[in-house]
C-alpha cells in the first residue's frame, strides 16, 4: 500500500482490498457441500398462497445483482417473500441502500458500517449516517458488530469495538433498532450489549452462538435472525435454537449474496431463498409454513416498523 496516501484514502483502499479478499474466501468457504442430483423445484415455482415472508437481512445493493435486480425481486415475490430489508456494510453501500429503499417497492434499508470495513469515524461520517436514517424506508442502523473470525489483529479488533459502540450510540439517539453481526466474538459482544448497548434493541443476525447465549439475548430483549446455515449438515446448535426460541423473537433472513441454503450452497444467494430457510425452520418447530411466515413477518414488522402492501 502506498504510504503517500492520506489516511482516509488509505483506509478506503485497505477496506476495498479486504472486502475483495473476504468475498473470495466466502465463496470458496460456501462451496463445501455437493448439490444433490435430484431435481430441484425453485422456491418461486412452489406456489406462495398464504405465505408472506420478509427477508430481514440482505445485501442486494451490490454488483452481484447488477444484471437482474428487478428479476431477483420478482422471484422473491413469487416465492412468497413479500418484502426485503437490505443492509449497507460500508458507507458507499449504505448510500446505495438509501437509493434502493426509495425506489423499490417493499424494499427497506439499514445503514451502517460492518466490522470488517470499519474506519475511525469523523463527525461528518456520523452526520452522513444520521442524515441517511431520515430518508424514506430506512428502518435500522446496520450492519454493525464484531468479527474476530476475519480479523485477528488485536488493534483492529479494538477499532471494531470502538466503532460498534459508536454506532450503537447513534442508533439510541435516533431511536432505531440495530442489526448486529457477530462472528467468533460472542464474549465481547455480550459484554458490550450488557453495558454500552443495554438500551439498544434489535437483531443478532445470522446467529451462531449457543442456546445458552441465545437465552441470555432473548432475556435482554433481542431478536434472533436465522439464515441458510440452518439447512447445512453442520448446522450444529442452530436447529436446537430454532426449536426452543419463542415464536415472537425469530426472524428469517438470507444474508444474500452469501450463505445460500441447500441445495444452492456455494451459489449466489437471493431473497427468494428465505422461503427455503423458513420451510426448514417451520418443520423443526412443527408449525405450518403459513403460520411460521405470518409470525416471523409480524416480528419483522414490530422490530423494524415495516409497513408494506
Ligand atoms: Zn450481512
What can be said about this structure in brief?
This protein has ten helices and eight strands. It is α/β, with parallel strands linked by helices.
Account of the protein in words:
The chain has 309 residues and is an alpha/beta fold. It has one domain (48-304): Metal-dependent hydrolases (TIM Barrel). The chain has helices at 7-30, 69-78, 91-103, 123-133, 154-174, 186-194, 211-219, 238-244, 274-285, 289-304, and strands at residues 53-58, 81-87, 107-111, 138-147, 178-183, 202-204, 223-226, 250-252. Helix 3 packs parallel to helix 4 (123-133) and helix 9 packs across helix 10. The protein starts with 6 loop residues before the first helix and ends in a 5-residue tail after the last helix. Zinc ion is lined by residues 57, 59, 87, 143, 255.
Provide tags for this entry.
309 residues, alpha/beta, TIM Barrel, 8-stranded parallel β-sheet, globular, binds zinc ion
How much of the polypeptide forms β-strand, as a percent range? 5-15%
Whole-number count of domains: 1
Largest sheet: 8 strands, parallel
End-to-end gap:
49 Å
| Overall pLDDT confidence | 91
Q: Strand pairing plus helix content: what structural class?
A: alpha/beta
What is the CATH topology classification name?
TIM Barrel
Counting DSSP E segments of at least 2 residues, the number of strands comes to 8
Q: How many helix segments?
A: 10
Say which CATH homologous superfamily is assigned: Metal-dependent hydrolases
The gross shape turns out to be globular
CATH hierarchy: architecture: Alpha-Beta Barrel
What is the CATH first-level class name? Alpha Beta
Helical content, roughly?
Answer: 40-55%
Strand order of the largest sheet: 1-2-3-4-5-6-7-8
Parts with pLDDT < 50 across at least 5 consecutive residues: 31-36
User: Cα-atom Rg, whole angstroms?
Assistant: 18 Å
From N to C, what is the helix and strand string?
Answer: HEHEHEHEHEHEHEHEHH
Bound molecules: zinc ion
